[in-house]
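Pinned message: reference record for GTP cyclohydrolase 1 type 2 homolog
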Amino acid sequence: MAIALNTLVDEAERYLGAARIQDYCPNGLQVEGRPQVSRIVTGVTASLALLEAAVAADADVVLVHHGYFWKGENPCVVGMKHRRLKTLLANDLSLLAYHLPLDLHPEVGNNVQLARQLDIIVEGPLEPDNPRTVGLVGSLAEPMSARDFARRVHEVLGREPLLVEGDRMVSRIGWCTGGGQGYIDTAIAAGVDLYLTGEASEQTFHSARENGISFIAAGHHATERYGVQALGDYLARRFALEHLFIDCPNPV
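Predicted structure (tokens):
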């Protein structure tokens, strides 16, 4: 079955509430391709490798979390940007991208989806008075050691996480997928035993160690694979489309 590209975009916009969210990039249709859609390819980042794989899969739309045209970047279409855009335009392939709307969504959002993967019970936003906070806080059904929880992360995400191990058992967890290490102090104020994100900064180690909590950096790419898949599945069910998730490995 095929539907109009505009119909797909309108539903994604409505479902995610993208127009209400301020972001560092344009959300929605970033590059327009053929007017009809029957197959969607999803991935974390609109890299050249993903675009080439989407072309090989005969996709009509590439749907990603990390798209293009970020605030402050060089707007000139040269080098890497030229090669990516040329691949899209030459193959009449649309690019649909959602950044913060895909982090925040209560059903298909990266943070909610990661919690489901890791069996974390979601309790609410990391900042209770700010429901638009990207990060979440929750709990485990049974307390476990930080090392055992890190093993769970390793098994689920398929990569060895960086662990700063504290002394306390882990019951209450704060997390933010991707580059959310800056929320660690907010997580500490929320009374967590462990904070989980994708990346780490030099000062993150000291914040965890000196405040007596554990910290896990499980990879920016690895922690943000699940939201875009869930959104792709939703759209595929809604419109009887074909959906294929393509994971282009990224160690960061």
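Pinned by admin. Summary line: The chain has two domains: 3-102, 105-223.
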